[in-house]
Design goal:
A hairpin with a 4-residue loop joins strand 11 and strand 12. By secondary structure, the chain is of the alpha/beta class. It has two domains: 165 residues, Rossmann fold; 201 residues, Dihydrodipicolinate Reductase, domain 2, CATH 3.30.360.10. The strands form four sheets. Strands 7, 9, 10, 11, 12, 13, 17 and 18 form an eight-stranded mixed sheet that branches. The longest helix has 18 residues. The chain is globular and about 55 Å long.
Length: 398
Amino acid sequence: MRILLVGAGGVGSAFCAIAARRDFFEVIVIADYDESRAEKAAAEDERYVGAQVDASSADSVAALCREHRITHVMNAVDPVFDMSVFDGAFAAGADYLDMAMSLSRPHPTSPYEKTGVKLGDEQFAVASDWEAAGRLALVGIGVEPGLSDVFARYAADHLFSEIDELGTRDGANLVVTDDEGNEIFAPSFSMWTTIEECLNPPVIWQDGEWFTTPPFSEPEVFDFPEGIGPVECVNVEHEEVLLMPRWVECRRATFKYGLGDEFINILKVLHTLGLDSTEKVRVKGVEVSPRDVVAAVLPDPATVGPRMTGKTCAGLWVTGRGKDGAERSTYLYHVVDNEWTMREYGHQCVVWQTAINPVVALELLSRGTWQGAGVLGPEAFDAVPSSSCSPSTAARGG
């Protein structure tokens, strides 16, 4: 397996640190717009090579694939670049993985009631092309989406006979401080992506269809395990809701994120001021995207690890009836402590947790344990795979 990793930011660098301990690949070409950042990540292992790439150009991605005889493209850049990286991989005859999906566009007249272009629609629209070519595009294979989707398949196959709700719930008690020990606002994940998913209309699946609600709707307090405790969670647009119902039978699918009042207020202010916009504006003769400016002035998520404490939890709350027919409620989850990831890998816990699942998926693919063609989500594969496991071909929901 010869892997092209597009993006050497927080998640991409954590991916490199995790993969360095594995032996399933021949080479990883680490490519970033900033070649020096790629070279820094490549120093992790002698099997790594640094390179420069323009992730907005499918031709640039395809050329790099051909130059290095790439078999699998791992997309670790913001999802605004998903389609160019996705198309570049296909053009070069490589398989593709990402940790998100192609972006949505709200309904033009009823954004808080009806879906417009949904997350992943652009990718699923060409699924037949990938299948005909015998190529796999495994989308949403981070932690959320990703591990949460594996949990959904596991719950359906092994724990439940009937599922009422697949409710992804994400929460943390992370704190970032400045040099004087004062708590500061410093998102632990890409601010560009966070703005995108938190301010777009959240999508809910219920009784066979998708619909939308206003941002931050349906607040609930969820008690997270392993000392994190109760956190208020709200509806947020996320890929699980668009993936799970395609392969897992359920009445309802939701995603709720523990943002906290401060973060929600900041996001609302950004939106009110137009600072969440991706449309460029002219400032003193220079054209800039307001959202890019916001992301640029905040601390880089890859650098906050040494000043971060606490734990983060990704999980799936499943309700319905168990295999015995009795009512059942189960939370399947993964908790990681920032102190541990910093000590063991040198990367903060949120990016580390996001990066570990695609490494596992690539290893399963390299060994032929997971096999498939087309555009597929993680729940299309067996969560407890045998030595050779092909994906389910049944997909519902359009």
